[in-house]
Amino acid sequence: MASFVRISFCRLAGRGGTILSVNSNVGFVRSITSKTTRAAEKRPPKPAPWNYHEKSYTLLNYLFDKTSARFDDNSMVLVVEGPIAAGKTKVAKQLAAELDMLYLPEANLGMNYINNYGYDLRKLDPILPEMTRSFDVPDFLRNPKHKLTARFQIQQLITRLSQYVDALAHVFSTGQGVVLDRCVYSDFVFAEAMYNQGYLSKKAYKKYYEFRDNPMIELLRPHLIIYLDVPVPKVIENVKKRGISFEKGSPVINQQYLSVMEKHYMQSYLKEMSKHSELLVYDWSEEGDVEIVVEDIERINFNYDYQDQHLKDWDFRNEEDYAVLRHKFTSFVL
């Protein structure tokens, strides 16, 4: 399907797509800028955001609505990562506000249980068979060895995947950058910790990676990952301090579970993602200053040689490349 769409866009363009010029908004931008910096600059007007939740992006739209016209230096995907109770939400919200980006909260299965009319489908649990009832994060933390745990973790993955596609659709349709509180790429650290603790069977563990690996090749990795490093004893202290009912006394949140998460974050996730994305790591044992993080972000040069694997996912050479991806991601959202 993707190749058919690419051929169609190419034919409409009349040749191999419109080559982006030196004067284009994209392709020659080097760094993210804060809202304060942007306010002091005179920038050319951009097309209004495309309502991708209600309108599809078709071949006909491509002729009159060029995706690159909305892109600027902040048309990027940022992810704030870290262990449980590290302070990711606060940092992600502040970064989004300071960089004038869209903030997306951590995706969790509970989001799926509220329908479009605001009704909480979990209210139906008492009249449903056990295997068809809801099972989300609070349920897992209370009873990690429940028979629905494997289904829960795979559905968590799908929920994070759906949110990440939505984030990409937002960037391509509006030009506004996105800051996510955790993302689908790091979801496996939970699966690894669950498997280590015996909450996932070997069969469920293998099935999880089957679900994970196939769709990931269709995505674009984030431009920047910001990791808040908090040692395990401090994480446990933070969990107790914030006092969320289903976290307190949970058999899941212990030294071993959190240590496995930390190991896979450091040795697998950050190591692999740093080959493709920019990475900032902060000691967040004590809450740091987000303004310093913003300054560090503004200093990053996001331009790389075309042969470099860094940010290769976002190396677009013509308008057709943008159009194909915009069509793909918005098609999943509708």
UniProtKB/TrEMBL annotation:
InterPro entries: Deoxyribonucleoside_kinase (IPR050566), DNK_dom (IPR031314), NDUFA10 (IPR015828), P-loop_NTPase (IPR027417). It comes from the Eukaryota. It is found in: Mitochondrion matrix. GO terms for cellular component: mitochondrial matrix. SUPFAM superfamilies: P-loop containing nucleoside triphosphate hydrolases (SSF52540). Its cofactor is FAD. Its main location: mitochondrion. Keywords: Electron transport, FAD, Flavoprotein, Mitochondrion, Respiratory chain, Transit peptide, Transport. One of its GO terms (biological process) is mitochondrial electron transport, NADH to ubiquinone. Belongs to the complex I NDUFA10 subunit family. This is NADH dehydrogenase [ubiquinone] 1 alpha subcomplex subunit 10, mitochondrial.
